[in-house]
Backbone:
């Protein structure tokens, strides 16, 4: 089962991706997590990506395409995978289409005004990438791995506006792209985490 999650920043893609991947036993491929890992390692790619990410811009297509191609060639992707946050441009989708087939594209839809408070309150573990929200978890360490809880530098209100604009301009066209190819299923992301999970499962089974 080859899956893609699209949707605006803060829609809950990462939260649902973790649940779906553990339910179906497929790897969770988050380009955002991969880029943040590269930044932590201080690699050349990380240094280059950081400027774009901190400004709320997209990292250039060729950089993320290279990362994803390499990751999809690993053995654990043979039986399926979930791409979270990739593709984000039509050019990325076209390139992905040349390397693999996709079974489902899930569009997690949430109105913009709700996204800002989701993102402003987002906290994450800097070790295992677990996702939290201050309204429900306000500890300094991760309950899964004991890692430090941090706020992403690109989750500032100023950057969020940029990211939403970028989403509308560059990523939203993917919805039509995949609808035309009969791969798109829309899921209402303005519900509880459990309800959204159930809705996604019923699309997939
Ligand atoms: P969110 O979950 O809030 O949408 P991500 O963790 O997916 O954020 O991505 C964080 C940032 O990493 C993006 O704002 C962008 O700068 C960069 N990024 C992640 N995936 C891609 C991609 N497929 N193409 C270009 N840039 C990307
Ligand atoms: P994305 O990967 O799409 O950027 P995340 O999964 O990181 O989104 O979620 C963004 C924030 O919203 C996190 O703080 C997360 O805990 C919270 N969140 C996720 N799903 C829901 C939901 N259904 N209702 C309320 N808050 C949610
Ligand atoms: Zn953790």
Residues:
């Amino acid at each position: 089962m080859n899956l893609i999650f699209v949707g605006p920043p803060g829609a809950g893609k990462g939260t649902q991706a973790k649940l779906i991947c553990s339910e179906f036993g497929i790897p969770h491929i988050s380009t955002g997590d991969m880029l943040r890992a590269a930044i932590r390692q201080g690699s050349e790619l990380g240094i280059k990506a950081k400027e774009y990410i901190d400004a709320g811009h997209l990292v250039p297509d060729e950089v993320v395409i290279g990362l994803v191609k390499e990751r999809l060639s690993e053995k654990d992707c043979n039986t399926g995978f979930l791409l979270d946050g990739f593709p984000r441009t039509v050019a990325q989708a076209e390139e992905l289409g040349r390397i693999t087939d996709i079974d489902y594209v899930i569009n997690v839809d949430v109105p913009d005004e709700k996204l800002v408070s989701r993102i402003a309150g987002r906290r994450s573990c800097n070790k295992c990438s677990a996702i939290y929200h201050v309204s429900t978890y306000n500890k300094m360490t991760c309950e899964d791995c004991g890692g430090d809880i941090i706020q992403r530098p690109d989750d500032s209100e100023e950057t969020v506006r940029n990211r939403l604009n970028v989403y509308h301009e560059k990523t939203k066209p993917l919805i039509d792209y995949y609808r035309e190819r009969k791969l798109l299923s829309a899921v209402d992301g303005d519900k509880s985490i459990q309800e959204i999970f159930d809705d996604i499962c019923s699309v997939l089974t």
About this structure: Residues 199 and 205 are 10 Å apart (CA to CA). The first helix runs from residue 13 to 24.
